Amino acid sequence: MIVALCVVIQIRSGQFFTPNNLVDLANAMVVPGLFGIGAYMVIVSGGIDVSFPALASLAVYAVTRVLVDSDFQGPVIVPLLAVMALGALLGAFNGLFTSRLAIPTLIITLGTANVFSGVMQGALSSVQIPALPASMEAFGRTALFTAKNQQSGLTSSLPLSFLLLIAVLVIVFLIMRYTMFGRAIFALGGDESSALRAGFKVRSIKFWLYVMVGVIAALGGFVRTTSMGQMHPTNLLGSEMLVIAAVVLGGAAITGGTGSLTGVMLGTLLIVIVQNSMILLGIPTFWQRAALGMLIIVGTGISAVQITRRRRRQRLVAE
Fold first, then answer.
1. H/E element holding 145?
2. Which long-range contacts (CB under 8 A, 24 or more apart) does 262-265 make?
3. pLDDT per residue as tens digits for the range 91-141
4. pTM above 0.85, yes or no
């Protein structure tokens, strides 16, 4: 699907494979890619998390508000670590409920998403913060390199935050592939009862899983805020369905137990191409939304077919 879409866009516009457009696509993948990695871990464990946009918004807004009010002039590592710490704390809030209550994670995280949004908009009286601390603005403006379209003269910069996506991707890959914690996440998604009988500490694994997801989501919120050069408290809200669709399009079973980070990145790339490159074909915005909706339907449909086939094979083997 990705190859076919790229070829069609290139034939119609002649601009898809230009250096600046490819850099724009890589730039656009950073935030949904980070969110997708966190959503992937939860889906593989057999759950669905819809709270990560609200969690990211609250974590970044609270830290930014405090730093701006205190006229912070320190290095960017301070807000970065503060955002990660608050993300871990909010993730622990999710983990506490999901590990202790026998309620679908979709319901729990739907509730916590509203709690996070309520705290941000109510208790913190969130408003747009037009100017960030100098170090955060500098981080958002720092580029690894700049690509130029020789025909149009347009230039695009690959941000430093792209390295953050690569670092998180490598760390999560190593965890999921080579550690008992990663194997436990796959085991939970396959069959939680069997994982418990095998000796895995299910409650502990669920708790720390959501702590990790909280940290990753907060990083995504930090990147979005610094790249925009301002803090908009509701900018990320509503992005959860597209992120989950990207993970499912990448081959992760919605019921858990299977999936790969390669698939997550490919699914995210497909969503980003639809969002960012269909304008090259002159397609109106409302048709882009329709196309994204169709991708969600196709993604969940593919997952449903995969699950049905796997269960059928299991029944045949059992017989």
1. strand 143-148
2. 264/33, 264/36, 264/37, 264/40, 265/29, 265/33, 265/36, 265/169
3. 999 999 998 888 889 999 999 999 999 999 887 888 889 989 999 999 999
4. yes
